[in-house]
């Protein structure tokens, strides 16, 4: 489950281990009752502005922070770690009281669990009462119960999973959600169009439905048109994107859309496709596929064969080739 993966992730961060946490290496900096430090926790400053001498068996906050930032340090985070992980490690040095025990659940705003084999989004997430961003890409999630999602969520990314149905997700969706990422899943238009309306996502600004199995372009557009705040839409990789009038129909049907398939919609493009949305006869059940061959290796080039001299009686050899496409 997501919650199990999250607790395992916290364990790997070592927020209570050196150089983080309230260990003997920096304990006096956070002992309000005995330490003269009264500044921001972990900075070691007193009201007079004078630095308190660090006991010989302790490290200064600056030295501990250097152990986290210096890439030669064995305690440094890897370069590809998330900004949230780096922020938690820094807090564990400068203000460890804020992330002790369950206190961390009150400060965490972003959670990234990618490629951990997660199959279930469980109710443990409800403990993250300030969570705004949840990224669960490249897992094995097939169904999501919206009742287990924090109501504060603004970004939900589920790219590269096995989601085939949105019914459970739309039961009690987070009301303030602004981005929903469902690319590279198993959604199809016949059963999902009705779940992509403003009734469920009134504040949605960005929607990624790329590389699924949507085929009904007019039906999908009729639902998306209710999303009055939608500005970014990604539909590439779906069968409907092969329709010749696909882009023009979407540009004219969704006048508030700013970006389609990662390409900005300019005023000239909107003018060029004006009125196309009313010509449904152009949306046919057919597709156009353009195949371009850049380079072929290992095949002899007939043009390089030595030309026969005029009047030569040598036999003429003809080469022919067959190229097969398999879809």
From TrEMBL:
Q: Which SUPFAM superfamilies match?
A: Outer arm dynein light chain 1
List the GO terms this entry assigns under cellular component, sorted alphabetically.
Answer: cytoplasm
Q: Upper lineage ranks?
A: Eukaryota, Metazoa, Chordata, Craniata, Vertebrata
Among its keywords, does the record have Repeat?
Answer: yes
Q: Which domain of life is it from?
A: Eukaryota
Organism listed in the record: Tauraco erythrolophus
Question: Which PROSITE patterns does this entry report, sorted A to Z?
Answer: LRR
Entry-linked InterPro entries: Leu-rich_rpt, Leu-rich_rpt_4, Leu-rich_rpt_typical-subtyp, LRR_dom_sf
Q: Tell me which UniProt keywords the record has, alphabetically.
A: Leucine-rich repeat, Repeat
Q: Does the keyword Zinc apply?
A: no
Where does the record locate the signal sequence feature?
A: none
Q: Spell out the Pfam families in the cross-references.
A: LRR_4
Entries under SMART domains matching the protein? LRR_TYP (SM00369)
Protein name (database record): Leucine-rich repeat-containing protein 43
């Amino acid at each position: 489950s997501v919650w199990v993966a999250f607790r395992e992730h916290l364990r790997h961060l070592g927020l209570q281990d050196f150089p983080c946490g309230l260990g003997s290496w920096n304990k006096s900096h956070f002992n309000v009752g005995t330490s003269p430090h009264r500044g921001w926790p972990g900075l070691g400053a007193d009201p007079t502005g004078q630095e308190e001498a660090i006991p010989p068996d302790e490290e200064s906050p600056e030295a501990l922070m250097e152990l986290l930032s210096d890439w030669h340090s064995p305690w440094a985070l890897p370069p590809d770690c998330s900004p949230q992980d780096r922020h938690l490690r820094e807090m564990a040095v400068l203000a460890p009281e804020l992330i002790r025990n369950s206190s961390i659940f009150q400060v965490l705003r972003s959670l990234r669990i990618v490629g951990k084999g997660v199959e279930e989004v469980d109710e443990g997430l409800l403990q993250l009462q300030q969570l705004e961003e949840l990224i669960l890409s490249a897992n094995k999630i097939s169904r999501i119960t919206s009742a287990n999602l924090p109501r504060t969520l603004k970004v939900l990314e589920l790219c590269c999973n096995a989601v085939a149905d949105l019914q459970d997700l739309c039961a009690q969706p987070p009301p303030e959600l602004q981005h929903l990422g469902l690319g590279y899943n198993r959604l199809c238009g016949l059963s999902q169009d009705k779940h992509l309306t403003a009734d469920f996502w009134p504040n949605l600004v960005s929607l990624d439905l790329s590389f699924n199995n949507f085929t009904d372009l007019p039906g999908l557009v009729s639902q998306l048109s209710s999303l009055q705040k939608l500005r970014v839409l990604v539909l590439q990789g779906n069968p409907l994107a092969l329709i010749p009038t696909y882009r023009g129909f979407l540009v004219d049907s969704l006048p508030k859309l700013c970006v389609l398939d990662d390409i900005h919609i300019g005023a000239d493009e909107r003018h060029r496709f004006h009125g196309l949305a009313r010509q449904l006869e152009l949306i046919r059940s057919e597709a156009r596929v353009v195949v371009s061959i850049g380079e072929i290796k290992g095949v002899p080039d007939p043009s390089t064969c030595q030309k026969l001299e005029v009047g030569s009686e040598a036999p003429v050899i003809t080469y022919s080739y067959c190229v097969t496409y398999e879809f």
